[in-house]
């Protein structure tokens, strides 16, 4: 089974991920991972922190001579900013300093609930781990998952759909061409007209000490029918992807296919009629409102997911909170942050979706080596072509 765990505080030494269950024999380099780490750092609206960091993964286990070994892969991404935080983030009791302690929790953050739950007196004990810096580790793991999926001609791409109220027009290109458009653009948006307005919206929010959220789309092309299962609630692929996306910092909503818009149409205009292509010996749909998943299983069409990111909770113009010592109403703490991180969230969404699809692929086809997994996959493809 593919699974992973991350560790690390935002201003600690590093963020780390251990990913397990990747079959042996997958060719991968640190460069493959660093490429995606760099993509996550970009995007108009990011704050000063991204000018400090140049995220690179150090591979400390699981890869030898350019190939995976089937053993846990450990990836360490150093926090360059840690050098500026050695005292505040020190492991040693002797560095404890009352001056550093903050007790004015920010609305929208994990600060207050975490302090109550873990009985911590300093909000830094919570915010350091709750920080979206952790997503660097998930993107590193996602890069490995994407590499595995590419061996099966499965591609996962993402793009910015909406910033504030400005929505891009529908995707009208082959998903494989998406990176060619998104990667050099300020907001990873395909609709250049909308993107200009989005940039202006972020600029305006920043000027007002405010933040702005948005929606990103993640598209999976090339997955075979039958990933996930209808037989049990926790095996359903849409449910698993939804959990992965919802677990990304600041995500408040997830859609599959037409998503919430389904309520605006009757059944006859919602469900995708089934056809059969005799030359390709394949079933297909003329429409894809289901977003490539029916009954918790991939149906062979492109899978489409969206994540809604709330405006970042750290505001330069602070909201009211309670001083935890005096219990009086005060301004919440002001900390350096981003104005908008939706383009980065798209890269993270792409990573966590890739991990879930890779997990479902491994579950269906098994294999300790890539060779074995591919053999099982090809047998299955033969089986469905001859159905
Ligand atoms: C974050 C706050 C900011 C962001 C950070 C997430 O960091 P800092 O507190 O150092 O200014 O830049 O995102 C990252 C560091 C990152 O790598 O994405 C937060 O509070 O969640």
| CATH-derived topology | Chorismate synthase, AroC fold
Mean pLDDT: 97
Order of helices and strands: EEHHEEEEHHHEEHHEHEEEEEEEEHH
Read across the widest sheet, the strand sequence of neighbours is 8-7-9-15-10
CATH architecture designation = 4-Layer Sandwich
Distance between the termini: 28 Å
**Shape verdict:** globular
Strand content: 15-25%
The biggest beta sheet reads: 5 strands, antiparallel
Q: Quickly count the domains.
A: 1
Total count of strands: 17
Radius of gyration: 22 Å
List low-pLDDT spans.
Answer: none
Spell out which ligands are present. Answer: ligand EPS
Considering the chains and any ligands shown, give keywords for the structure.
387 residues, alpha+beta, Chorismate synthase, AroC fold, 4-stranded antiparallel β-sheet, 10 helices, 20% strand, globular, binds ligand EPS
Question: Can you give a write-up of this model?
Answer:
- With 387 residues, the protein is an alpha+beta fold.
- The protein has a single domain, classed as 4-Layer Sandwich (Chorismate synthase, AroC fold), CATH 3.60.150.10.
- The chain has ten helices and 17 strands.
- A hairpin with a 6-residue loop joins strand 1 (3-7) and strand 2.
- Helix 5 packs across helix 9.
- It binds ligand EPS.
- Residues 10, 47, 49, 81, 131-133, 135-136, 249, 314, 335-338 line the site of ligand EPS.
